[in-house]
Amino acid sequence: MTIERVALYLQDAHDLRDGLDYVKYAEERGFEAVWQAESRLVRDAIVPMAAYAAVTEKIQIGSGVINNWTRNIGLLASTFLTLDDLAPDRIICGIGAWWDPLAKNVGIDRKSPLTAMEETLVVMRRLLNMERVTFEGEYVHVNGIELDVVHGRREPRNVPIYIGATGPKMLELTGRIADGVVLNYCVPPEYNERAIDELKKGLKASGRTMDDMDRPQLVVCSVDEDGDKAIDTSRELLTQYLAQQPHIAKASGVSMDVVHEIQSILGWPATHEQIQQAKYLVPDDLIHRITASGTPDEARAKVQEYINNGATCPILYPVGGNVKVLIDTFATR
Question: For the whole prediction, is pTM greater than 0.90?
Answer without folding.
Answer: yes
